[in-house]
Design brief:
hydrolase (chains A, B); Ribonuclease iii, N-terminal Endonuclease Domain, Chain A; 10 helices; homodimer; 13% strand; RNase_III_dom (chains A, B); two-stranded antiparallel ribbon; nuclease (chains A, B); 5 strands; tRNA processing (chains A, B); 249 residues; alpha+beta; endonuclease (chains A, B); Double Stranded RNA Binding Domain
């Protein structure tokens, strides 16, 4: 009912030039015009340009990003759940995390035109400060679509405008990024030396799980687990790359 | 359409005695009868009693738990988002994690009668092996409701049967568990000694964030952050309690 009222209302509002441009962009990205423009305006507003609305509270897109992240998670979860009926939850979790990773969300966001609608303080830009800007804005946009049009609509946006056209899931499954080489390369540049330590083998009955730790100059950085020492090393290296923020380099 | 067909079908199926009991329990817990019983049967089947269905793949409730966890997350996210319009995403994330914590899901699951419907191998029970059994089954049940009746219905189940009757959100916000005392108590029992180390102060412009590390017998266990050293210590202690699985003791 609320959605219906917003839909009717939206016909009678007269918009500013700026708003009209945003509406056109949203239509291009999401496939249909907003009913209620407000959440989209917030979604495209980075914290660097957000204004205080109440006792120091800034209305930036970070709250919507939190909401959109959850919506994205459940839609991808269901999609993988149904597509792979004989794969266990470890597999589903891993593939989902590759789909919603910062790297891939940033890439998709760039492709579908998010950079053209996000407003942020370009003067404050440093190499790191806006690293996830586009991916985060895409999540906020999902949050806005959810608030504006409900679950079904946001589910169909995620499946038909993001997941199916921009992800090759089979390739994602078969590609194992070589995090270990990436980490070793980085440590060499920093004149540091990495090492891998076998911490534990857990007997799981019908299989064994290995826990490996990666250290840099003997300082423990991250742990990883896997069904072989090699896989556990890769997992630890992946975790270390994330912690050290090497993902986008 | 699919839901409608299942609804019609469900009227004509003749169920076994066991199935009828499960249907009655689901009705009691969820407020309405299943359309399609199959996902509920899987949801109430712990991996310890799961049978192989295909090349070693066991149909246990773990996949549904993964799905239900995502559905729960988005519903709680939206609820908090709307209830606290002037709170930032850090607050929303923290309160959500308290709501969906292992402890609280286990408690709610016990209260609403999940122990009566879950099937698991009682012989294999060790103090730790079934620690999260009821909470996990509750998540799997949410997954089953989602598959059987869709998003709206599972959202209303979560809000009206779990969140509103079983959580006092205001209390949850105001109660800060004293994780530090819990950790100190535990280490004393183990004749070990804990210490807290200030690692870093991050200048965030208008405020500072402190990073503290907790060590047990000089071995780093966990890190925490907060707006004061005391808060960062609590956060590190909370993280350590989770890692050491002290949460339910």
């Amino acid at each position: 009912m609320r959605l219906f009222v917003n839909r009717i209302k939206s016909v009678f509002i007269s918009y500013s030039k700026e708003d009209k441009a945003l509406i056109a962009s949203i239509k291009m990205i999401a496939g249909s015009k907003p009913y209620n423009l407000k959440p989209y305006k917030i979604a495209t507003q980075h914290t660097s340009v957000a204004k205080s609305v109440k006792r120091g509270f800034k209305e930036s897109n970070e709250r919507l990003e939190y909401l959109g992240d959850a919506v994205l998670s459940v839609v991808v979860a269901e999609y993988l759940f149904k597509r792979y009926p004989f794969k266990d939850e470890g597999f589903l979790t891993e593939i989902r995390s590759r789909i919603v990773s910062r790297d891939s969300l940033n890439n998709v966001a760039r492709t579908i035109g998010v950079p053209q609608i996000v407003r942020y303080d370009k003067k404050r830009k440093t190499p790191n400060s806006h690293k996830s800007l586009f991916g985060n804005t895409l999540e906020a946009l999902i949050g806005a679509i959810y608030l504006d049009k409900g679950f079904k609509h946001s589910r169909s946006f995620i499946l038909n405008k993001l997941l199916k056209p921009h992800f090759d899931i089979e390739e994602l499954i078969n590609t194992t990024k070589n995090y270990k080489s990436k980490l070793i390369e980085w440590t060499q540049k920093q004149s540091k030396s990495p090492s891998f330590q076998h911490l534990e083998t857990i007997d799981k009955g019908h299989y064994k799980e290995f826990i490996m730790e990666v250290r840099i100059d003997d300082e423990p950085i991250a742990k990883g687990h896997g069904l072989s020492k090699k896989k556990a090393e890769q997992d630890a290296a992946r975790e270390a790359c994330l912690k050290l923020e090497l993902e986008e380099q």
